[in-house]
Amino acid sequence: MTAPSQPILDEPTRSFVQRCLSAGLVEINDIKKVVVSLQAEGSAFTAKRLAEGLIGAGLLTHWQANKLLAGKSKGFYLGSYRLLRPLGKGGMGVVYLGEHHVMKRLMALKIMPPESVADKRRADRFREEARASAQLDHPNIVRAYDFAEAGGKLYIVMEYIDGIDLQAAVRRDGVMSVPLALDAIRQATCGLAHAHDRGVIHRDIKPSNLMLRTDGVVKVSDMGLARVSWMGIDEQSTNNRLLGTADFVAPEQAINSKSVDARADIYSLGCTLYYLLTGQAPFSGNTIAQRLAKHQTAAPPDVRSIHPDCPNAVAELVMRMMAKRPEDRPKSAAELL
């Protein structure tokens, strides 16, 4: 009597296949094609090897495969979007790359965690971010297209930027040349001028919130802390909490974030220009309190002390943008242009 043949897939691999199907990420016929291909290669069948084959065939992303290998079979879809991978974290949530299941268009989905949705103040603030973003339509601002709720999660559908933020760019490539840094700041200023004209103050301008697309276009992102003049945003509960980022926040914003105007964004943009040219924040300190104190009292640092070849006019521009008193800075982003 002939012994029964051994199954091609062992139990862990069959469980992995079942999770792929249950998650709605892969069709059984596609899995069979990958199995046949792996058989032709003489590869040993394990869940990990099959996952690698599905990734190679473009059927799974690395993030999806790792989640499936870890035993997950849910959380791969949100509304009309298939989640491909995390892109990063914003002021109010995690951002994922998503693909519309019909249109196949790639979008960035900013998702508010379910535990935060129960907090009415935070949920209202997230909705206000969506409303503020929807009012802005400019080539140098990340566009927002939709706001929705699914599976107990609130999310904003935004333009996907194929690139990296300016902080990551400097860490990867080193400090920018003066022309490149000025061009990046000019583009960001164009976007801010559009926002300011519509009553939107960003309040969290920094290198990591300026996205550099692969074609060189710079876009302002993350309106999570924006102050909108025509919205009745309740910020009473933020009185004792810093709104902004300590390395780039304007002196007056650290004291009272509710009363700031466009000149606070200009100060933060000056700090950002300093970072692009030197690779470091303007003020050092072991604690947030120490850095905030320097924003309040220390003279703006001279770029030329680190970047001796920086033209005098550019160094003076940085110091003017970082003036302690708002009235000593350029009055608006439009004036800065």
Automatic annotation (TrEMBL):
<dbReference type="InterPro" id="IPR000719">
    <property type="entry name" value="Prot_kinase_dom"/>
</dbReference>
<keyword id="KW-0547">Nucleotide-binding</keyword>
<feature type="domain" description="Protein kinase">
    <location>
        <begin position="81"/>
        <end position="337"/>
    </location>
</feature>
<dbReference type="Pfam" id="PF00069">
    <property type="entry name" value="Pkinase"/>
</dbReference>
<keyword id="KW-0067">ATP-binding</keyword>
<protein>
    <submittedName>
        <fullName>Serine/threonine protein kinase</fullName>
        <ecNumber>2.7.-.-</ecNumber>
    </submittedName>
</protein>
<dbReference type="GO" id="GO:0004674">
    <property type="term" value="F:protein serine/threonine kinase activity"/>
</dbReference>
<dbReference type="GO" id="GO:0005524">
    <property type="term" value="F:ATP binding"/>
</dbReference>
<keyword id="KW-0418">Kinase</keyword>
<dbReference type="InterPro" id="IPR011009">
    <property type="entry name" value="Kinase-like_dom_sf"/>
</dbReference>
<dbReference type="InterPro" id="IPR008271">
    <property type="entry name" value="Ser/Thr_kinase_AS"/>
</dbReference>
<feature type="binding site">
    <location>
        <position position="110"/>
    </location>
    <ligand>
        <name>ATP</name>
    </ligand>
</feature>
<dbReference type="InterPro" id="IPR017441">
    <property type="entry name" value="Protein_kinase_ATP_BS"/>
</dbReference>
<keyword id="KW-0808">Transferase</keyword>
<keyword id="KW-0723">Serine/threonine-protein kinase</keyword>
